[in-house]
Specification:
This protein has 357 residues and is an alpha/beta fold. It folds into two domains: 2-134 and 284-355, FAD/NAD(P)-binding domain (3-Layer(bba) Sandwich), CATH 3.50.50.60; 150-199 and 235-280, FAD/NAD(P)-binding domain (3-Layer(bba) Sandwich), CATH 3.50.50.60. The chain is built from six helices and 21 strands. The chain has helices spanning 13-24, 76-89, 175-184, 210-217, 241-247, 336-355; strands spanning 2-9, 29-33, 93-96, 100-106, 109-114, 119-127, 150-153, 167-171, 189-194, 200-202, 204-205, 208-209, 236-238, 252-255, 259-261, 264-266, 272-274, 277-280, 306-307, 310-311, 317-319. The mean pLDDT is 94.
């Protein structure tokens, strides 16, 4: 069985930033990526997605985001190309097509099992597999279980073309929900269904992008994550387009439907309306099924038990890329490198301690 220093599970932005930080400290991580490429979930996002932060604030450590226009908002495909190039430049052992099925404690080390039967023994493990593999479908959401039309999560949405001319309802009040609903509304009749009003934040303030101000004030890196019992809802970043679209009724916004009857949704006023499809833009949860057998790693809901990325009660296990892991920017291109560096520092100390036992 192969013996390694650190197994980094996930080859997207979090895993690559972690590998970079570990290499800087003289460790030799092995990055295990389930898919066939090192770009994480980015290739599977919807076609029109752009970053919410400008290029100048969207880099991993050691490699600025390319392009002359530092204030543009890079497209999904630019991010995929950037992450691919970053991985190519990284002197790390990155293994694609290696899905981790379980992590178990074996004395002072971990045994990492791979799909297909392979196994590794690692002195430390970093779970950096993100959230895209676990779309959140709220259990208490009324209707979709009884609805006989199409129901899909935003993770499965690519473009408005298949829905042209249809009647759709997008559920959610976050950035993706509003962006997808506005895009669909260009060729279909669309309602954005939410539990409350949509909250907006100005994309630009006094001529500067919002991220300039969060960086300048220190809000981007403030260690507030430990004070939050759960990640707070984020407002929709808007340059005015989305607020105007909702005001014009393209899409319109309504309170959440109360149920379904066949292919009809039931609205709070009792109206029943035929709908072709429901798009659930209801977010994601950490995708960590491989830790289910590791005592103390996850809580009853499958969420990680940690303090700023270090697993609570499981020495040698860490997380990178969690929402609000330590700060507002923890699960973003601009901030994940800071968390990765902290985790690398802590794991280096842990491994040094193990070596002297």
């Amino acid at each position: 069985m192969e013996h390694i220093d650190v197994a980094v599970i996930g080859g997207g932005q979090s895993g690559l930033a972690t590998a970079h930080a570990l290499l800087r400290r003289g460790l030799r991580p092995v990055v295990l990526e389930a898919s066939g490429r090192t770009a994480g979930s980015w290739p599977r996002y919807y076609d029109s997605l752009t970053l919410f932060s400008p290029a100048r604030y969207s880099s991993l450590p050691g490699m600025p985001f390319p392009g002359a226009d530092r204030d543009r908002y890079p497209h999904r495909d630019e991010v995929v190309a950037y992450l691919t190039a970053y991985a190519d430049r990284l002197d790390a052992d990155i293994r694609t097509g290696e899905r981790v099925t379980s992590v178990r404690r074996d004395g002072p080390v971990f045994e990492v099992a791979l799909e297909g039967g392979g196994r590794l023994r690692a002195r430390a493990v970093v779970a950096a597999s993100g959230t895209f593999g676990r779309p959140h479908r709220p259990a208490l959401l009324p209707g979709p279980a009884e609805f006989t039309g199409q129901v899909l999560h935003a993770a499965d949405y690519r473009s408005p073309a298949p829905f042209a001319g249809g009647r759709l309802v997008v559920v959610g009040a976050g950035n993706s929900a509003v962006q997808i609903a506005a895009e669909l509304a260009e060729t279909a009749r669309v309602t954005l269904a939410t539990r409350g009003p949509v909250k907006f934040a100005a994309q630009r303030i006094l001529g500067r992008d919002l991220h300039f101000w969060t960086a300048r004030t220190g809000l981007d890196i403030a260690p507030l994550g430990r004070l939050l019992p759960s990640p707070p809802a984020q407002p929709v970043l808007d340059d005015g387009r989305y607020r105007a679209a909702l005001a014009a009724g393209r899409p319109d916004r309504r309170p959440l439907f109360t149920g379904a009857d066949g292919n009809k949704l039931i609205w709070p006023d009792g109206q029943r309306e035929e709908v072709d499809a429901i798009v659930l833009a209801t977010g994601y949860r950490p995708d960590l099924p491989y830790l289910a057998s590791l005592d103390g790693a996850l809580d009853a809901d499958g969420s990680p038990r940690h303090r700023e990325g270090l697993a609570a009660g499981v020495p040698g296990l860490a997380f990178v890329g969690l929402e609000w892991q330590r700060s507002l920017s923890s699960n973003s291109l601009r901030g994940v490198g800071r968390d990765a560096e902290r985790i690398a520092r802590r794991l280096t100390a842990h491994l040094a301690h193990l070596a002297h036992r």
